[in-house]
Specification:
By secondary structure, the chain is mainly alpha-helical. It folds into 4 domains: 187 residues, no CATH class; 154 residues, no CATH class; 44 residues, no CATH class; 137 residues, no CATH class. The chain is 57% helix and 4% strand. The strands form 2 sheets. It has a 3-stranded mixed beta sheet with strand order 3-5-4, with helices on one face. A hairpin with a 3-residue loop joins strand 1 and strand 2. The longest helix is centred in the middle third of the chain and has 40 residues. It is globular and about 70 Å long. The two termini are 41 Å apart.
Length: 553
C-alpha cells in the first residue's frame, strides 16, 4: 500500500518545533510589537516542520511548545540584546538547512557540517530510503515552497535577495517534481524513475561513500563506520521495497536497465567479502589508525581492537549485506518478464510531465524538452565539426566522425596498457594534468579553492559501470578534499574513453576553480548566518556534483 501524505508528519525532516534562528528572530519582533499578539500571529502563519499539508498544520502540543519557547525568548529579548540578531529570513533558511541535513546523514557527511547543525550525531546512520521517507520528502518539498512564498521578499537586501531567488528556483522545481508519486525523490538531487538501477542505487553509491566520506581518525569513528555498515542492508532492502511498490503501480524499469542492474548485483554478490570496498577501505583506515600508536603496548592493543572490528565487519557483510544484494536481484528476476523494451519515461504515468520536471530540476531552466533537444543537436553538430578537424590532424580522414572515433578507441596507440602499470600511469598522467592547470589557475581566477583536489581511481567495485570520470566536491568546511575519480578501465572496455585521448583539457572543467570554487571549495570559514544562507546555494551543487555514470566530463 502506497503511503498517505497525511500520515507523514513525523517521518522526515524533524527539527525542533520552530526552533533555532527563526524562533529567535520572531521573539525579537515580539518584543518590539505586542508580544503575545505577534507570537500568536506568527504561529498561525508558520507551519511545523513535520506538518504535511496546511500552513497552520501544527498539532496542539507543537503549538504550545512553540508559544512557550517564543514567549520566553521574547521576554529575554526585551532586556539587553545581542548585537545584530538574525532576521526572520536568516532564521527560516537556518531551519530549512537544519531540517535538510537532519533528514540526510549522508549529505551531512558529504558536507562536513557539525552534528549541531545536522540536528545531532549522524556518523552512525545512512539515509532512510524507504517509500514512506521518500513520500515525506515530497511533502516537505511542497511545504518549503509555500513557506518561502509566504515571506516578504521585497524587504530583503541584495545578498538575501540572491539567496531568495536561488531558493525559489530550487524549491519550485522540487515542488513540481514532488507531484510524481513514483521513483526516487531528493530535495537537492532531483528525481529518477527507478529505485534499483546500475548508476545510483544504494548498492552502487554506498561503497564509494564509505571509502571517501567516512574518515576514521579514532576508534569512535571506527565504531561509527561499523554501525553504518550494519545499515547498508536496510538501505538496499528499502530500495527493493520501493521498486516493488512502484512495479505494482505499473512503474517498472525497461529490460536493459534491469539486466544491467542484475549484472552489477551479481558481480557484488560474487565478490569475496575481503575484496569488497566496504572491507578494504575499513582495513586500510584501521591500519593507518593503528600505525599512529608509537607505544608498543598501545600499538598492540590497537591492533587487537582493529582486528576485532574487521572480524565484525566481515560478519556483517556475509550475514546482512550480501543477502540484501541477493534479495534485490531476486526481485528483479521475478519481474524481468514483465519489463518493456521501451526506454523513454513517456510510457510511465504522466511521463511527459515527469520528463519536463526532471529536466527543470537538472537544468534549472524552464526550457521545454524540445528546446533542450534542439540545443543538444546543435551542440553535437558543433562538436562533431571540431572533432573532424582534430581527427584529420592525426591522419584519420576517411569515414564518418563517429566511425573514426571508434577506430581511435580501438587503436592500441591511444590506449594505456591493460595492466596495473598502465592503470597507474593513467592516474599519474591525470595528476600531472591537474598540477599543470593549478599552476595556471591564478591567472584565471581571483578566488582559488582552499580545499585540496585529489585524483583517485574509481573504486573497482563500481568501475564497471563508471564511464570516464566524475567529481566529488570537498566538504564545506574544507576538512576533506575535492576528489576527481578517474576510471581506469581499459579503453576497449570503456567506449566513452579512448585512454590517452580521454585526458583532454575538458577534463579540467569540473574540478578546478570557477566550478569547484563556485561550489564548495572557496570559503569554509564564513560567519554563521552568512554560511547558512550560502549553504543552500552550495548544497545543491554539492549533491548534484556527486553524480556518476554520465560519461566523460
Amino acid at each position: 500500500m502506497r503511503p498517505d501524505r497525511n500520515s507523514l508528519a513525523q517521518t522526515s525532516e524533524r527539527p525542533e518545533a520552530l526552533s533555532g534562528a527563526a524562533t529567535r528572530a520572531m521573539a525579537k519582533q515580539a518584543c518590539a510589537q505586542d508580544g503575545a499578539d505577534m507570537i500568536i500571529s506568527q504561529v498561525r502563519e508558520t507551519r511545523g516542520d513535520g506538518a504535511p499539508t496546511a500552513l497552520n498544520g501544527m498539532n496542539r502540543r507543537r503549538v504550545l511548545t512553540a508559544m512557550s519557547s517564543m514567549l520566553a525568548l521574547a521576554a529575554a529579548s526585551c532586556g539587553p540584546r545581542a548585537a545584530d540578531p538574525l532576521s526572520v529570513f536568516d532564521g527560516q533558511v537556518d531551519d530549512w538547512t537544519r531540517a535538510l541535513l537532519a533528514d540526510s546523514p549522508e549529505l551531512a557527511s558529504q558536507s562536513g557540517v557539525s552534528p549541531e547543525l545536522a540536528g545531532g550525531p549522524f556518523q552512525t546512520r545512512l539515509d532512510d530510503r524507504s517509500p514512506l521517507a521518500v513520500e515525506a520528502r515530497r511533502t516537505a518539498a511542497m511545504r518549503r515552497l509555500t513557506e518561502l512564498r509566504g515571506l516578504n521578499s521585497s524587504a530583503l537586501d541584495p545578498e538575501d535577495s540572491l539567496t531568495y531567488a536561488v531558493l525559489d528556483a530550487q524549491f519550485s522545481a522540487a515542488a513540481a517534481a514532488a507531484q510524481h508519486p513514483f521513483g526516487v525523490f531528493s530535495a537537492l538531487g532531483g528525481i529518477s524513475p527507478y529505485p534499483l538501477n546500475p548508476l545510483d542505487s544504494a548498492f552502487i553509491t554506498l561503497p564509494d561513500f564509505f571509502e571517501s566520506r567516512h574518515p576514521i581518525d579514532s576508534f569512535a569513528d571506527a565504531d561509527a563506520y561499523l554501525a553504518r555498515l550494519k545499515a547498508v542492508a536496510a538501505a538496499i532492502d528499502q530500495e527493493t521495497a520501493h521498486a516493488r511498490l512502484d512495479s505494482e503501480a505499473g512503474v517498472l524499469a525497461p529490460g536493459f536497465i534491469i539486466d544491467a542492474t542484475l549484472r552489477q548485483l551479481d558481480a557484488s554478490i560474487g565478490q569475496p567479502v575481503t575484496a569488497q570496498t566496504y572491507f578494504t577501505s575499513f582495513a586500510r583506515k584501521l591500519d593507518a589508525l593503528v600505525a599512529r600508536e608509537r607505544d608498543p603496548a598501545a600499538n598492540s592493543s590497537a591492533k587487537q581492537r582493529a582486528g576485532a572490528l574487521l572480524a565484525r565487519a566481515d560478519a556483517v557483510l556475509r550475514a546482512q549485506v550480501t543477502p540484501a544484494h541477493q534479495r534485490a536481484a531476486g526481485f528483479l528476476r521475478s519481474v524481468r518478464a514483465r519489463a518493456s523494451d521501451e526506454a523513454g519515461v513517456w510510457r510511465l504515468p504522466n511521463g511527459e510531465s515527469y520528463y519536463a520536471d526532471a529536466l527543470r530540476v537538472a537544468t534549472t531552466t524552464d526550457l521545454t524538452p524540445d528546446q533542450i533537444h534542439r540545443i543538444g543537436l546543435d551542440r553535437v553538430r558543433d562538436l562533431t565539426s571540431l572533432m573532424d578537424v582534430a581527427l584529420r590532424r592525426i591522419g584519420m580522414i576517411d569515414g564518418p566522425v563517429g566511425a573514426r572515433m571508434s577506430a581511435m578507441t580501438a587503436d592500441p596507440r591511444y590506449q594505456y596498457p591493460d595492466s596495473d602499470e598502465g592503470r597507474a600511469q593513467l592516474i599519474a598522467d591525470v595528476k600531472a594534468r591537474v598540477a599543470k592547470v593549478m599552476e595556471l589557475a591564478p591567472r584565471w581566477f581571483g578566488t582559488l579553492p582552499k580545499a585540496p583536489l585529489e585524483v583517485r581511481r574509481v573504486p573497482p567495485a563500481i568501475e564497471a559501470v563508471t564511464f570516464g570520470a566524475y567529481y566529488q566536491p570537498p566538504t564545506l568546511d574544507g576538512s576533506q578534499p575535492g576528489i576527481y575519480h578517474q576510471s581506469a578501465r581499459h579503453g576497449r572496455d570503456d567506449p566513452h574513453r579512448p585512454a590517452d585521448a580521454g585526458l583532454s583539457r575538458s577534463r579540467s572543467r569540473p574540478s578546478f576553480p570557477g566550478r569547484a570554487g563556485a561550489r564548495a571549495d572557496a570559503n569554509p570559514a564564513a560567519a554563521a548566518a552568512d554560511e547558512l544562507q550560502r549553504l543552500w546555494r552550495r548544497l545543491g551543487a554539492l549533491r548534484r556534483g556527486i553524480g556518476r555514470g554520465a560519461g566523460p566530463l
